[in-house]
Design a protein that fits this description.
Organism: Penstemon davidsonii
Number of strands: 8
Distance between the termini: 40 Å
Structural class: alpha/beta
Shape: elongated
Strand content: 5-15%
Protein name: F-box domain-containing protein
Mean pLDDT: 76
Largest sheet: 8 strands, parallel
Radius of gyration: 21 Å
InterPro entries: F-box_dom, LRR_dom_sf
Strand order of the largest sheet: 1-2-3-4-5-6-7-8
Low-confidence stretches: 249-317
Helix content: 25-40%
Length: 320
């Protein structure tokens, strides 16, 4: 750069500014390319500035649980207590759940779909998640009313809850009315509630409506035992009710519209560990994944995500 030029060098930008710029890059690039550019960029990536929001939900669906755990520990540690949003799928380790909870002092948004957390551990972790306002526990089959009650009692600022299920995952249950009643009795500040395919009936949903008076969206798609009187629903003037009718996503404008997931995490499972795995581990991970994986496992999401609500005329909330 010539003398007298008013423009600052890229490597002189403060870490906060660099972090804002790096948000426009994929996570793969931030982890594997940026640190090699210069020392100041490496310092920014190694510090908390880039890790206040961590979204590896799409990536984690196709990863072994031990790799997901390793990634979470790496990124959450870098956040140094400044983590505000975390989205990850299929967390299977109790230790990882508690690791997340122990670093949740600034956490506002937590998405843990398909995770293996159970009632006992959710009760223990809930007291450490008190700052959360947006919680997604969809497809978590090992939790129930006990967990939701603990969540309601501890997460006093919770305004959005996603508890969407797959019909095949609840086929052996007689009822999940106890979950609806736990929500009704402990979560009065809810504004957005999604309980698609939960096995609930009309009376339990009425309990939710009467106790969660700030509700703006209630999603009961696939809750076939729910039959709310139209006049009764009209009494809740701020409420948008979606369901129980299901709109097939294939009737919409293609599969690209059938998911609310960001493509920013679409990197391969082994890329984040460049320089951190030995050759044997790298080879093992590389052999396990390919870009041509059968997408059938993701079909379950197509029928419950945001596209159907948009079809119903509602602009769904995004994660904060």
């Amino acid at each position: 750069m010539e003398e007298g030029c008013d423009f600052r060098k890229w490597d002189e930008l403060i870490p906060d500014a660099l972090a804002l710029i790096f948000k426009n890059l994929s996570l793969r690039e931030v982890l594997t390319v940026v640190p090699r550019v210069c020392k100041s960029w490496k310092r920014a990536v190694m510090g908390p500035y880039c890790w206040q929001e961590i979204d590896i939900e799409e990536w984690s669906k196709n990863c072994k649980s031990e790799i997901v755990d390793q990634m979470l520990r790496l990124l959450i540690t870098r956040s140094s207590g400044s983590l505000r949003k975390l989205a990850v799928s299929g967390v299977n380790s109790d230790q990882t759940i508690f690791f997340i909870a122990n670093h949740a002092q600034s956490l506002r948004t937590l998405r843990l779909p398909r995770s293996e957390i159970n009632d006992a551990n959710m009760e223990k972790a809930a007291s450490m998640l008190s700052s959360i306002t947006f919680l997604d526990l969809s497809y978590c089959i090992n939790i129930g009313a006990q967990s939701l009650e603990a969540i309601g009692k501890n997460l006093k600022s919770l305004t959005t809850l996603r508890r969407v299920m797959h019909p095949l995952e609840v086929i052996d249950k007689l009822s999940q009315n106890d979950e609806a009643l736990a929500i009704a009795s402990t979560m009065p500040k809810l504004k957005h509630l999604e309980i698609a395919y939960l096995l609930v009936d009309t009376s339990s949903v009425i309990e939710i409506l009467e106790n969660c008076k700030q509700l703006e969206l209630l999603d009961v798609r696939g809750c076939w035992n729910v039959n709310l009187d139209e006049k009764f629903v009209k009494g809740f003037t701020k409420l948008k009710l979606v369901g129980p009718l299901i709109v097939d996503c294939y009737e919409m404008n293609g599969l690209d519209n059938c998911s609310d997931y960001s493509g920013s995490s679409g990197y391969l499972a082994w890329d984040f560990v460049a320089g951190e795995l030995d050759d044997d581990e790298y080879a093992e991970i590389s052999d396990d994944f390919s870009e041509d994986e059968d997408p059938v496992d993701d079909v379950e999401m197509w029928f419950y995500d945001d596209v159907n609500a948009l079809d119903a005329g509602y602009d769904w909330p995004q994660s904060p």
